Amino acid sequence: MSSQNINLLPSSQWNHYWIAYFLKWVTTYGKYALIITELIVISAFLTRFKLDQDLLEVKDKINNNVAILQSSKTFEGQVTKLSQKQNLVIKEWQKTPTFSKYITAVTDSLPKNIILNNISANKSSMTLVGYSPNEVSLAYFLKYLKKNPAFKSVSLTKISSDLSPTNEVKLITFTIQLALKPVYVKYQ
């Protein structure tokens, strides 16, 4: 058997037609264009798997964050309620007088030889119970308290003469009632 060559390309007489140029281009350069196109399609197909995996990971992260936000929503509500309660407490606290200022005013007016046994206070008044070795010290104490701008009025409600707890010295026992001027705390 002899081999025969079969030429599917047009003969030279066909070389002047556009179909001949097209077939020649397809057989030489067209195969490279087809291979490049197939490589692009395959890489896009493989990239799709990676992008699908990335999309699933992002969806999982979003779902996890949504769950965290849902769980923190109740916590945020509790914090808001607590903050509202705190604001109410602060407002009420600002309305109450600061007793430390009144106690400082009392101690600034207190002579060294007077002993205070009890100090009690409410919103509008303060009661002092103590001992004095003599009437002069008690008079000075009352005078300084009356001059102090923290108090509206000062009144000596009880006075008596008793022996000291050791029964050695005679002391004057007194009770003083102070009406407080309103001084409010500024919360910062």
Task: Give a short overview.
With 188 residues, this protein is of the alpha+beta class. It has helices spanning 18-95, 99-109, 135-147, and strands spanning 115-121, 125-132, 151-163, 170-180. Helix content is 54%, strand content 21%.
Describe the protein's architecture and organization.
By secondary structure, this protein is of the alpha+beta class. It folds into two domains: 1-95, no CATH class; 99-180, Gyrase A, domain 2. The chain has helices at residues 18-95, 99-109, 135-147; strands at 115-121, 125-132, 151-163, 170-180. Strands 1-2-4-3 form a four-stranded antiparallel β-sheet, covered by helices on one side. The longest helix is centred in the first third of the chain and has 78 residues, at 18-95. The radius of gyration is 50 Å and the shape is rod-shaped. The protein starts with 17 loop residues before the first helix and ends in an 8-residue tail after the last strand.
